[in-house]
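Bug report (template v2)

What were you trying to do?
Predict the complex of my protein with iron/sulfur cluster.

What happened?
Run completed; filing so the output is reviewed.

Input:
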Amino acid sequence: MDQPRKLHIKSFGCQMNVYDAQRMVDALAPQGFVETANADDADLVILNTCHIREKAAEKVYSELGKLKLLKQDAAQQGRRFEIAVAGCVAQAEGEEIIRRQPAVDVVVGPQSYHHLPELLAQARREGRALETEFPVEDKFGLLPPPQPEAIRARGVSAFVTVQEGCDKFCSFCVVPYTRGAEMSRPVAQIIADTERLAAHGVREVTLIGQNVNGYHGEGPDGRPWSLGRLLHRLAEIPGIVRLRYSTSHPLDVDDELIAAHRELAALMPFVHLPVQSGSDTILAAMNRRHTADDYRRLIDRFRAASPTIAFSSDFIVGFPGESERDFAATLALVEQIGYAGAYSFKYSPRPGTPAAEMQEMVAPAVMDERLEQLQSLIDSQQAAFNAAAIGTTVDVLFERAARHPGQLVGRTAYLQPAHVMASDDIIGQVLPVTIHSLERYSLIGELASHAAAPKPVTIGA
Ligand code: 5AD
Ligand code: SF4
């Protein structure tokens, strides 16, 4: 039998790249590839890239420089070492990647991962292979499902892509160009994937999509189903105890989704709802198509449906034309909403997007200053949110052994890591934990059953 070939995938960027990396491993498993944690001893390295900001995109070339050296070493030892570039930089830059780094064997866009085996074969025959089309066939239907051992090895929490691409065209964003037009997977496929995951130990599923709440996949009744309806159906799958979804656009939140937060115990009360800015002028320039007040009202509707709900968000500082007043409006919105956490980024002009043509660039020093101010406000909100857990008892889904011997780590409903001393047979269970302290972003506690248990009584002599 042939030796297994070793595959190393390095992913950058969003959750969908994490999911896609797993699907690429699954696609190459039937070819005899097994995953390795090191690039050095791999036969094939895939860089799964991100194009969202310039820094992320440029990182690819420094990584490729290092891989080229590994390829040269391998060649000296008479060993074949292949390099593939996948993800959004592959989609956006295509042939340019091979021009800048000729050591690359394969360039493959996110819509063509099911063609990876053929592309590798083509590269061996012809020296290189490139595919960045948006093929008409259904990639998801053609990608092999993960093997039971792979599902178990990946743990109790899994991603499932339900929707891909985006039609929102926010003026700063490359996603509509790199991931293409919105498409939703049919409900039956998502149920089948989730059932398979649940059968092999997955307890929590996060439905992912660039605009996940724009989901409108075909239901078994032949009609489009909303995300809220899909969540109801998935909550019925035995073994699935937690559901999440990410990332949402405020404009596509509907009553069914909000109601799902009231009706479904499995739907976690933690919603990532990016707003990007608190200024109506900037929101309009960003083509977000809602105002800051629309967003505030939306948050109120979620809170009315589920009083324990918490939010996270994304923000961009220094969008072209952002004045001090605009930025103050962002700070005011953050103060008012009160986030459990949020990501904030300096605006980065992306080639081909409308915002990249805008003139009034904010000075880099001003951007730095605004980013720092916003991040420190968000950090203080996050710290307060975490501190509020001290002294309470919260449900934790246990995921794996932690760094310290005998310690396990799991996550609360709000994705806070929680550490307890316990034996690892509780991995995969949701158990109440009494939190007694905080260590940076982690909650430290003990199983509530232990905390509440009466002192052991000695019977007899
Ligand atoms: N510059 C800075 N941040 C950006 N994002 C998207 N495009 C850009 C850009 N050009 C941020 C947005 C988005 C998150 C995933 O990345 O906040 O929600
Ligand atoms: Fe990009 Fe999100 Fe806007 Fe779509 S909704 S264009 S993915 S920022």
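What did the reviewer find?
Residues 166, 168-170, 173, 175-176, 210-211, 249 surround iron/sulfur cluster (ligand 2) (CB under 6 Å). The radius of gyration is 24 Å.
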